[in-house]
Amino acid sequence: MKSCQYLKFSAAVILTALAVVATATQSFAQLPGGGQTPQQEVVGGNPLRLRNTYSEARNGGHLLSVWRGADNNQVWMSRDNGTPFTIGGTVTFVSPTVVPYGPDGFLVFHTGDNGDIFFAGVDGAGTTSDTWFAVPGNFTNLPVSVVQMGPNSFNLYMVYRGLGNDKRVWGTWFDWAANTWSTAENISGGLGNSAPGVSMNNVSNRLFVTVEGTDNQLWMTSQALGASIWSGWARMGVSTSDTPHSVACANGNMVVNILDFFSHPEYAKFDAWGNQQTGWNVDTSEPSVWPLQLAANENNVYSLATLLDDGIGASGLYLGFWKQIYNCQ
Fold this sequence. Notes:
Elements (H helix, E strand, L loop, with lengths): L2 H11 L25 E2 L1 E2 L2 E2 L3 E9 L2 E7 L6 E5 L17 E5 L3 E7 L4 E7 L10 E7 L5 E4 L7 E6 L6 E8 L4 E2 L3 E7 L5 E5 L4 E7 L4 E8 L9 E6 L5 E4 L5 E6 L5 E6 L10 E2 L10 E5 L2 E9 L9 E10 L2
Antiparallel strand pairs: 1-26, 2-3, 4-5, 5-6, 7-8, 8-9, 9-10, 11-12, 12-13, 13-14, 13-15, 16-17, 17-18, 18-19, 20-21, 21-22, 22-23, 24-25, 25-26
């Protein structure tokens, strides 16, 4: 079965995501990044052990978590924090990602050891596509970022940095009606030192792309769905040492994060059209080894971090942690 055929077929087969519920407090309702102590992520009754950044998606009342194995290069998954499982044999040296697909499904993406970008589907009952499919004609050696283009949509937008010395920021979208991936475009001529991130704001109906530029600064651009061009890249006046991420709440407010050169995440609030609303708030509670992923559940924003286990230290054991960093209301 061809990859695009699976994407259409999986509308009836793939499933579900949701989890991590916490109570927001007024102490961090104004400025993103404060609030709770990091909470240990648990899968199958055990702490999540991993390398690189982990990713979560919520859809249809379920949660799907994905990560790179702690002592292998396998892509692992857990539905609703249950027993971890895999799909076939994978080899990846970077973080995988997961995205909602349709009203209740998921697609998981990872970068293979040869630069190909692969995806597979998972439904809410744990049924999988049984194999991985390549996104044709797209290559990178870094993580990819993928977003659902609107609530319950089967259309997806993916961004990545080019392979090897190719620093261009590329974007391609899956058109479910046409059953194909578009030809990749270099988004507004953008270049990046690290992998870019993409998010969708369902209030302004815009895609947002963030990247660490070749000057180590945060750069952002956006595009209204259906438009033919992206806005020009905007230099945001803050340095980052790795991939910046953004996420939108149900009410349209957004949070953008960076990783500063002391390995501390910093957060700022933006409105639905990408206008910055606050300064940058530094979270010094725990230095992060890899960039922090962001996830939203309605109007709550969570950070997903990979931290060194201080109790084991020299063994190099890394564990997954989450914490609520913002209430968008």
